[in-house]
Write a structure and sequence with these properties.
This protein is an alpha+beta fold and about 675 residues long. The chain folds into 4 domains: about 120 residues, no CATH class; about 80 residues, no CATH class; about 350 residues, no CATH class; about 90 residues, OB fold (Dihydrolipoamide Acetyltransferase, E2P), CATH 2.40.50. It has 21 helices and 24 strands. The C terminus is likely disordered.
């Protein structure tokens, strides 16, 4: 005997092996068509039959079920609850075969729109209103499936559907996986074997891998777009009122930056004192004089946290109009927060001479590194015949910068760290600064990457005096009990360097206090600290009562955490785009490139002329800084990878421990955070 039953929503047939009990208590040991041993009770069985054979019945029923007219079946079915045998007579007649009855079971089970299940083998037809709604839904679903299939085929052949173009960014970076568009897109990727980004590029939805990398970052951090709204500006009346209260400084200040710097937020001045020595002024652009906590510009700056730098462009923290108002551009007095300190004839800082005040500072010129750096040397600074501007002032700043550097290195040694070399590092060392320039030749975009060694006299002057300004600012905040955003570095481990609201030492820089404050036009942490410092400059010991952030302010703690997260993400994006353009540089001549690399650690190596790190397992067993000639090919600009073949490995000509690329947290604080050359 064979039994018809339902399991997991499917209609199945089993062949009885043995039976027990009687009536409603009867049960059977049976074998399903798949060979599975099962036990069935009388209440679970829909239909019993002896012939024909189970497999033959199921095969015929599967075919017949597809021919059943569900609408006609619904019309035939009674209003009240019915069983399988009852409705089979209505649909097929009194002589309905077993196969026909089984086909109806399959059809009824698979038509929830037409029939409701009321029990095993029992059904009731759906009310007319629900049937009509269900059929409409099925029709819509069918149309969606047809549309999905059409989109999929268009994508496969390389045509991006016109109706999906407005969704291309969302499909790639933040898709709704339940939509037909996404299902068609992923199905096309599966069919072609491409990644979503590869398919988008082939279909012309995005132009290049660069668009993919940029789009992924913008979607995550600038979902509303990276451009500034023109309405975000400083009210001219408020600006004039704030500036009118500032005294005019008698100094003649100058900045030192590269030609690409547009946010000039720091400048220096040197004034000769009548009693000997000089007064050094560090002047920082002061947008905090006009931007207030929680106003629209503050909310904008806090949302962005920092200017985003990457090869070829940048996304500024503040709108261009605001930057233009506060940038320390030459030829005009600019609102600034100034720290003055006196130095003696030897360049040593005179104890107790430090002053801080908000004022208007005349900016005489903006010196550009490209025009000056090669001319400034130890000898030329002492040569009266040298013809470059501000030679005397630079000589004074250089003399004092060397002493500032020496004092920090003494503290580093006390902290258990090695002293850092002053000036240009080993000429054989790998460059750490690079200038990326994109040009278009015959309609083809090319990139040129020019290395620049850190450590010139101008680098050191700017770095040491900005470090001093940040250190002095941190000390003033700490001495007056004002919270701020302090950059601390202590101990070892992944959280060694961090931002916190209470003062602490920065062991890598050799400082007791360090609070970023020299870049308020491009870093939110510096803007926050400037608010606190302005309150201190204006109110002295009463600053805690009027400062925007009082002690233990929870909002400031949140800013510290948010800033760390954003700053890290922006740095990773800069690294990602630098790697992209490095690989573009390698691939742009179409031929595999022969280059030299230096092994760093664990098989990771740095290409000598550009800031590109690549895994080269063959070098893993060699000492640090082992040099090898390689061929780089098979560049993948989406995955940011390349194939490397080693041609020859040179024997190391210096001890493996010679430092070439120092840990960033020990060496990059000054150039990254303080030097205007960034």
């Amino acid at each position: 005997m064979h039994l018809l039953y339902e399991e997991g929503g499917d209609i199945k047939i089993a062949t009885v092996q043995s039976a027990s009990g009687a009536g409603d208590a009867e049960s059977w040991q049976a074998t399903s068509l798949s060979g599975k041993k099962i036990k069935l009770k009388a209440k679970e069985v829909w239909l019993r039959f002896e012939k024909p054979e189970a497999q033959a019945v199921m095969d015929e029923a599967s075919t017949l079920s597809k021919e059943i007219d569900l609408q006609f079946l619904w019309d035939c079915a009674p209003e009240e609850e019915f069983g399988l045998v009852d409705v089979s007579k209505e649909y097929f007649g009194d002589q309905a075969t077993i196969a026909q009855q089984v086909s109806l079971a399959v059809a009824l089970q698979g038509a929830p729109v037409f029939f409701r299940r009321k029990g095993r083998g029992r059904f009731q037809r759906a009310p007319l209103e629900q049937l009509q709604a269900g059929l409409a839904a099925l029709e819509r679903k069918q149309k969606d499936l047809e549309q999905q299939a059409a989109w999929q085929q268009e994508l496969v052949v390389g045509v991006f559907p016109e109706t999906l173009k407005s969704q291309s960014t969302q499909l790639l970076f933040s898709p709704d996986k339940n939509t037909s568009a996404y299902k068609a897109f992923i199905a096309a990727c599966t069919e072609t074997g491409e990644s979503p980004a590869q398919l988008m590029i082939r279909c012309g939805a995005i132009d290049s891998p660069l668009d993919y990398h940029q789009g992924m970052f913008l979607k995550a951090h600038f979902p509303g777009g990276a451009t500034h709204n023109e309405s975000n500006s400083v009210d001219s009346a408020a600006y004039d009122a704030a500036v009118a209260q500032l005294p005019l400084s008698e100094v003649s200040a100058f900045s030192i930056d590269d030609s690409g710097t547009t946010e000039i937020d720091d400048a220096l001045s040197v004034t000769e004192l009548s009693e000997g020595g000089h007064r050094i002024g560090v002047h920082i652009a002061a947008p905090a004089l006009v931007i207030s906590r929680d106003d629209p510009l503050d909310q904008l700056a806090r949302n962005r946290m920092s200017t985003v730098y990457f090869p070829g462009d940048k996304i500024t923290m503040l709108p261009d109009s605001v930057i233009a108002q506060f940038s320390l551009d030459e030829g005009k007095p600019c609102p600034a927060l100034s720290i003055y300190v006196d130095i003696d004839a030897q360049g040593q800082i005179v104890d107790g001479s430090q002053q801080m005040r908000a004022e208007l500072v005349p900016i005489a010129t903006n010196l550009r590194l490209e025009n000056l750096e090669d001319k400034v040397s130890e000898a030329s600074l002492l040569d009266e015949a040298s013809d470059y501007p501000y030679r005397k002032e630079l000589a004074v700043l250089w003399q004092s910068a060397k002493l500032l550097h020496a004092r920090r290195q003494a503290q580093r040694i006390t902290n258990g760290l090695r002293a850092e070399q002053l000036g240009v590092i080993d000429p054989n060392a790998l460059a750490r600064d690079f200038h990326f320039q994109m040009t278009e030749v015959a309609g083809v975009r090319r990139v040129e990457i020019t290395p620049r060694q850190r450590g010139s006299i101008l680098d050191t002057i700017v770095a040491e005096w900005m470090i001093y300004c940040n250190s002095a600012s941190g000390r003033m905040l700490a001495d007056h009990g004002l919270p701020g955003l302090f950059r601390t570095q202590k101990g070892w481990g992944p959280l060694r360097t961090r931002m916190q609201t209470t003062p602490g030492p920065h062991e890598g820089l050799g400082l007791d206090y360090y609070a970023w404050c020299t870049s308020p036009l491009r870093r939110y942490s510096d803007l926050v600290n400037q608010w606190q410092l302005i309150a201190l400059a204006k109110h002295g010991v009463a600053a805690k009562m009027v400062a925007p952030f009082p002690p233990r302010d929870a909002g400031l703690m949140g800013i510290a955490a948010d800033f760390e997260s954003c700053y890290q993400a922006y740095g990773e994006y800069q690294d990602r785009l630098e790697k992209y353009w490095c690989l573009r540089w390698i691939a742009q001549d179409s031929e595999p490139k022969k280059l030299f690399v230096r092994h760093l650690k664990e098989g990771m190596s740095r290409v000598e002329p550009i800031p590109l790190h690549l895994p080269i397992p063959e070098l893993a067993a060699y000492p640090r800084m082992t040099r090898a000639e390689v061929v780089i090919s098979d560049v993948d600009l989406l995955q940011l990878s390349a194939g490397v073949r080693v041609l020859q490995i040179e024997a190391p000509d210096k001890p493996a421990e010679t430092p070439v690329e120092k840990p960033p947290e020990l060496t990059s604080e000054a150039p990254e955070d303080d030097a205007s050359t960034t």
